[in-house]
Amino acid sequence: MALAGKLIGYVEISKKGDFFHDLFRHNPHKMVAIAPERAHDCELHEGDRGAVGSVITWHYTEGGKRKISKQIIEYVNEENHTIVFNVIGGELVEIYKSFKITLHVEPKGDGKVATWTFEFEKPDTSVPYPTSVMDFLCKLVKDLDAHDKA
Fold it and tell me: In b/e form, how buried is each residue of 83-120, taking b as 16+ CB within 10 angstroms?
């Protein structure tokens, strides 16, 4: 019996949503220069960079291990700074039956917040929640936000 799950992480940021939206959608190669200990490459396999339906593979280090995540950009909303990635390859699909990642940046009080949402399906109760992946992405956003302030 498969089990649906949802995990949400919030990171307060100083930069506008345009910065993160553009970085993750159109300029992921810049992340490699900003956070080389976390992000190593983002290959484009199909489509146009940042376009809905394009297929990309992220190369990254999480938990001290080099990993990959092959994804399809499923949805983009420029106005609301939202991007949805459907994971189709790599370590996450070896563990989970399905895995979707959403990045959304919105105003919060006097600042802004980057919100990561994972929607996933665990094959059974022995599979853990993907908290280490959430920690990784939240730390990546903090690194990117801190770098741009410099």
Answer: bbbbbeebebeeebeebbbbbbbeeeeeebbbbbbbbb
State how far Cα 29 lies from the chain centre.
14
For residue 59, what is the enclosing H or E element? Answer: strand 55-62
Q: How far, in Å, CA of 139 to CA of 132, rounded?
A: 11
- Joined together, the tokens standing for residue 52 give 């809905």
What is the residue type of 58? Answer: W
**pTM beyond cutoff 0.90:** yes
At residue 19's C-alpha, the angle toward residues 21 and 103, to 5°, is 30
* Predicted confidence (pLDDT) per residue in 66-124, tens digit: 999 999 999 999 999 999 999 999 999 999 999 999 999 998 888 899 999 999 999 99
Q: What is the C-alpha separation between 37 and 108, in angstroms, rounded?
A: 29
Q: Which two tokens stand for residue 26?
A: 């159109």
In the predicted structure, residue 37 carries a pLDDT above the cut 50: yes
Identify the burial level of 66 via C-beta atoms within 10 angstroms of its C-beta, where 0-12 means exposed, 13-18 middle and 19 or more buried: exposed
| The residue type at 85 | F
The tokens 């996450």 sit on which residue? 92
